[in-house]
């Protein structure tokens, strides 16, 4: 499905004014709750914050993944657009750096985005498809920086999981204290990724299966109770 297309769960029939107002309130409350608490934020709490009954939430969003899809559609589109732009950037190293900076910026103030980027959790096919496309573009970004000779040859796409996992903890610890300090850590990491002065690494990179298992483990430890 093209990046700008309408998600399959969205009805094309216009809602009544009161129903649209409830839907908008639910999405605003969900975005706020997911940003503060992650993807396991209480649906009862979201409905209460939106000023509606839980039944109203379920009428608009029958499952938690449906709500996640709609609440994060904008950020997922921004992430995908950044990957597409970086995959064809004139300078592959700048594309590599710019891509990671955009991703970390999307995560910095949003625990739910951290969860989407760092864990495997149940998601609609529409969202999973976008994440698969982003993974493919990320491989292209890494390959181009390797071909340019600016990214150290032993860095793999799977190694970028370390940036995402580390960033999620750094952002959680510092967002209320020094909200931009994550950029310092990211640029330290980018210097470590440069080809110049690289030293042999003590262990091989993780396989994609190992990364997937780690992300599944992270997702299972934060599974919602509802």
Describe the structure.
There is one protein chain. This protein has 226 residues and is mainly α. The protein has two domains: 17-67, Orthogonal Bundle (Arc Repressor Mutant, subunit A); 73-221, Tetracycline Repressor, domain 2, CATH 1.10.357. Helices cover 65% and strands 0% of the residues. It contains eleven helices and no strands. The chain has helices at residues 17-37, 43-50, 54-60, 64-71, 73-86, 92-108, 111-118, 125-148, 160-174, 182-193, 208-221. Helix 6 runs antiparallel to helix 10 (182-193). The protein starts with 16 loop residues before the first helix and ends in a 5-residue tail after the last helix.
Query: What's the N-to-C terminus distance?
Result: 30 Å
Poorly predicted ranges: 1-6
Total helix count?
Answer: 11
The strand count comes to: 0
Alpha-beta classification: mainly alpha
Question: In the residues, how many domains can be counted?
Answer: 2
CATH superfamily of the largest domain: Tetracycline Repressor, domain 2
Report Rg: 19 Å
CATH architecture of the largest domain: Orthogonal Bundle
Name the helix and strand elements from N-terminus to C-terminus, one letter apiece: HHHHHHHHHHH
Helix content: 55-70%
User: What's the rounded overall pLDDT mean?
Assistant: 89
């Amino acid at each position: 499905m093209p990046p700008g297309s309408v998600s399959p769960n969205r009805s094309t029939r216009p809602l009544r004014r009161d129903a649209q107002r409830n839907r908008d309130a639910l999405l605003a409350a969900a975005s706020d709750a997911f940003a503060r608490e992650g993807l396991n934020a209480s649906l009862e709490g979201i409905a209460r914050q939106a000023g509606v009954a839980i039944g109203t939430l379920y009428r608009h969003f029958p499952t938690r993944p449906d709500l996640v899809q709609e609440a994060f559609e904008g950020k997922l589109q921004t992430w995908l657009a950044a990957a597409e732009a970086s995959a064809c950037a004139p300078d592959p190293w700048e594309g590599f750096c710019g891509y990671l900076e955009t991703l970390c910026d999307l995560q910095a103030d949003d625990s739910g985005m951290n969860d989407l980027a760092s864990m495997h959790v149940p998601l609609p096919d529409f969202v999973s498809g976008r994440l698969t496309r982003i993974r493919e573009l990320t491989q292209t970004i890494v390959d181009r920086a390797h071909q340019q000779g600016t990214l150290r040859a032993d860095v793999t796409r799977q190694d970028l999981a370390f940036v995402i996992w580390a960033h999620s903890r750094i952002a959680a610890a510092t967002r209320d204290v020094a909200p931009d300090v994550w950029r310092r850590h990211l640029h330290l990491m980018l210097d470590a990724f440069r080809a110049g002065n690289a030293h042999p690494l003590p262990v091989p990179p993780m396989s994609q299966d190992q990364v997937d298992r780690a992300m599944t483990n992270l997702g299972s430890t934060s599974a919602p109770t509802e």
